[in-house]
Amino acid sequence: MKVLSAVTPLFLATLVASKSFLFGANQQHALLDDSLSVPGDNPLKFCDDPTDYILTIHNVDLDPNPPKKGKALRIKAMGNFTQKVEQDAYINLSVKYSLITLINTKADLCEQMKQVDESCPLQGPKDFIKDVTLPKEIPPGTYTVLADVYTKDNEKITCLKATVHFS
Predict the structure, then answer these.
(1) Burial bucket for residue 92 (CB in 10 Å: 0-12, 13-18, 19+)
(2) Structure pTM?
(3) Where are the beta strands (DSSP E) in the chain?
(4) Model confidence at 116, in pLDDT bands (50, 70, 90)?
(5) Which of 57, 66, 128, 158 shows its CA 20 to 30 Å from the CA of 80?
(6) Mean of pLDDT over the chain
(7) Residue 20 CA: distances (Å) to CA of 23, 39, 153
(8) Across the strands, what pairs with 128?
């Protein structure tokens, strides 16, 4: 359960702060195509061409990258909301460990924004720094995370994914 409690805020923080996700380990390898890479030092990928996303992510940096189990992780993110995002925006979040689904939930975006000291409505440029300590107990294996984010009217805000392997 410590893995789940660390992963969710990290991934949501990354999403909203450019307004999270990250798992940490001593040996981490991104396993996705580089053509959709989120700018910066991170393993995040856009799900598809982000041109029409409401959130333009300029940069997401992780320190250290790759993150390390049981250590502090600093997330720095910058981006711009090109339209006003109001209450009832949501995140469809899925976390899988190999083929096993650990999390498959719909979360309130505005509630999650509180983790990075933001609140709705969201509009214009945003930047943040978030420090999180990752648990030592992250089991080795391959993790896949998907966060698909929408307005209350089902317009795509952003979609991010990451696949990482922990040794």
Answers:
(1) middle
(2) 0.79
(3) 45-46, 55-63, 72-85, 90-97, 100-108, 122-133, 141-150, 156-166
(4) confident
(5) 66
(6) 82
(7) 10, 15, 22
(8) 77
Residues paired with 59 in a beta bridge: 78
- Asked if 137 and 34 touch (Cβ cutoff 8 Å), the reply is no
**pLDDT of res. 34:** 65
Residue range 66-89: mean pLDDT, rounded = 91
Matching residue, tokens 């959130």: 55
Q: Which of 24, 25, 47, 27 is nearest to 37 (CA)?
A: 47
Query: Residue type for 103, please?
Result: I
- Peptide bond before 67: cis, by omega within 30 degrees of 0? no
- Comparing C-alpha atoms, which of 78, 65, 149 is closest to residue 112? 149
H/E element, 88: none
Rounded to 5 degrees, what are φ and ψ at 70?
75, 5
Selection from 73, 61, 60, 77 nearest residue 125 by Cα: 77
